[in-house]
Design brief:
By secondary structure, the chain is an alpha+beta fold. The protein contains 9 helices and 15 strands. α3 runs antiparallel to α4, α3 crosses α6 and α5 packs across α6.
Length: 427
Amino acid sequence: MSSYSEYVMSASSSMMNSVRDAATSATSSAATAAGQVASSVSGVCHGVASSAQQKLLSYKYEDRQLSYEDKPDYPETDSPVWMLGQQYSARYDLPELRELVTSRPWLSYRKEFPAIGESGLTSDQGWGCMLRCGQMVLAGALLDIKMGREWRWNKDSKEEEYLQVMEKFMDIKSAQYSIHQISLMGESLDKKPVGTWFGPNTVAQVLRKLCKFDPSDDIAVHVAMDNTLVISEVKQACIVDTTDNNDEEDESKKTYNWKPLLLFISLRLGLHEMNPVYIPGLKTCFTLPSTLGVIGGSPNHALYLLGYVEDEVIFLDPHTTQAATAPDQTYHAVKPGRISISQLDPSLSLCFLCRTEEEFDNLCICVQEQLIEASRTPLFEMMLERPPHMYGQLPSGDSTGQPDENTGDDYEQLHRKYDSEDEFEIL
């Protein structure tokens, strides 16, 4: 009986060991399988994430032109399309509209250009959008002066005057209106470090300064502040004395020329969002013959506004990053974008080009009749002379230094009450 009990105990022990070994083996196999599955899943997820990241970077940085494929260029409507002072039909003038948009210089984010001063920055992605909008306005103004408003670009455009204008906006330090010169001048004027987002008024002030150092001296830039256009100050900036040295003392023999004018009128049309009472006046601005559009956009997303249709503005968007050495066709957009006027940031600058004094006089007449007298809430005021109470807001005299990587100490500091998008007068 004892031996039988020992036999049973021995058999039970063997069975338990077998079960334990089987369980251990099963657990080990399951763990190995789970590990293989987890490793496989992890590998797939890593591959998907890596692919997604690559696609995102490719989307951001590929050398492509602006397109908004989710909706057509213009809505199907019988309402007029106003672009740079000209009226078009969205139904019947599509070729003309597309030629016009493609012919306007499109300055977008760029990468891999020489570093800007001591900042080390080789791309303006994320901070240079308003600077690029300023470049688009000035480049368009210079082309209109040199080539005429009716000139149209195509991929074979090689006119010397066209190339000379575009060279001024290349992303190299030596170019007159490069991202380098604009950002460094902004650092000098407004103590904005390179890589800082500009407001529309700041970029207008910077371009005003840079134009004074342009050897070609073919345009004057005036920035109207405090919601006021003072006619005498504009004419003072544009009328140049061309009298011969021998005739300087004889008033009857004095001669004057008008330097083409790029006029910025810096405004704030609301507190945190666009005040609807100003929308009709803003639309009217796009219909004036001298308009060059508006630099503004949605909050922290600068856009160059060319015109409007119904309740949407039509714009060129600088938020596409391209190589700094990309070909000429990358400076011309295929399609514009559209956004509701109500979505615009209230800080903006109206832009006008007056190639002659007569054009400026006509602009003043249009402003008086269509913007001031026709509205209970005009966008801005206009007067012949600056009233005495506003003399304290005049900027100080201009300096004579040359802009380069070391700007910061030798330029005027503009003491303005309403200097940036955060400091405009609240209407």
